[in-house]
Amino acid sequence: MDWRLILIGENGPTPKHAERMTEALRVAGATSEIASGGTSEASLFPVLEVRDPQDRLDRAKIHRIAAQLEMDVHIAARPPAECKLLVADMEATIIEDEMLDLLADMRGIGPAVADITARTMAGELDFSQSLKARTKLLAGTSENLLRELCGRIRYTPGAKALVQTMRTAGAKTVLVTGGYDIFAQVVARHCGFDEVVSNHPVFRDGVMTGELQLPICNARTKREQLLRYCGELGIGPHSACCVGDGANDVEMLQSCGLAVSYKGKPVVQKIVDLNITNGSLIAALYAQGFTAARIADH
């Protein structure tokens, strides 16, 4: 199988990275050379044409090599093109933390909830059932505590620039998360998302009951929202960029044109075009052909 790799760096052309990647690919059993012209026309990043006649490479292995070399690599099946739709996960993607884990820490039940979260994102547990279980453990939590936690949200580098740059370019931006709406609305306002789809814990007298409003936003929902907005915009899924990090994002990532993860779990690295481990979410803009001059607040 042949591969086309664009080596992305936020500080301009990286010829040394190309040399290091070429050598790493050779060790892995593939040969590569800088494509005609030497760089991606839009981003001025090195482009490698990789020959892998014995199929020793796969997406996960390419992403692992890139991470070891401290670079981000876009596996480009087609020339970079600006997407008309952004559908993004929230936790460990647009923001750095898993909010339910933080909430559980504040309630003194952190390890129990964090274990369920980790196993779910690795694909070991069904998301809907695990969310119900975690929410049940959080019964008795005051709504005020959730609002207090909103002040501790940490945004992933480049998140706001990704959303606002794509919006300025005319794209629709949608935050679709299995997390709680109380957090998602704050994140959406900060970054500038057009729409939010999330989950709603049930409160009674200002306290979580341990139940969730139905239907639950899960992996299927994320794919359905991707296809829904594609339909509304009159575009195909190939014109959409999706960003996620875990098993709950796999269905939407498999269905879009540009699949991106931020420090993605192994289950996601198998399928994404770009797994960002070295730079910021701005790499997802470079993968679409945006130049630095067009990137918001950059």
Automatic annotation (TrEMBL):
Segments passing through the bilayer: none
UniProt keyword annotation of 4Fe-4S present: no
Q: Which UniProt keywords apply?
A: Amino-acid biosynthesis, Hydrolase, Magnesium, Metal-binding, Serine biosynthesis
This enzyme's EC code(s): 3.1.3.3
Task: Quote the pathway field.
Answer: Amino-acid biosynthesis; L-serine biosynthesis; L-serine from 3-phospho-D-glycerate: step 3/3
What does this protein need as cofactor? Mg(2+)
Matching InterPro entries, A to Z? HAD-like_SerB (IPR050582), HAD-like_sf (IPR036412), HAD_sf (IPR023214), PSP (IPR004469)
Q: State one molecular function term (GO).
A: magnesium ion binding
Q: Which Gene3D superfamilies match?
A: HAD superfamily/HAD-like
Q: Which reaction does it catalyse?
A: O-phospho-L-serine + H2O = L-serine + phosphate; O-phospho-D-serine + H2O = D-serine + phosphate
- What is any one GO biological process for this UniProt entry? L-serine biosynthetic process
Q: Name one GO cellular component term.
A: cytoplasm
Family affiliation: Belongs to the HAD-like hydrolase superfamily. SerB family.
Which NCBIfam families does UniProt cross-reference here? Answer: HAD-SF-IB, serB
Q: Which PANTHER family match?
A: PHOSPHOSERINE PHOSPHATASE
- Name this polypeptide is given: Phosphoserine phosphatase
Which organism is this entry from?
Nitratireductor pacificus pht-3B
**What does the record give as the organism's lineage?**
Bacteria, Pseudomonadati, Pseudomonadota, Alphaproteobacteria, Hyphomicrobiales
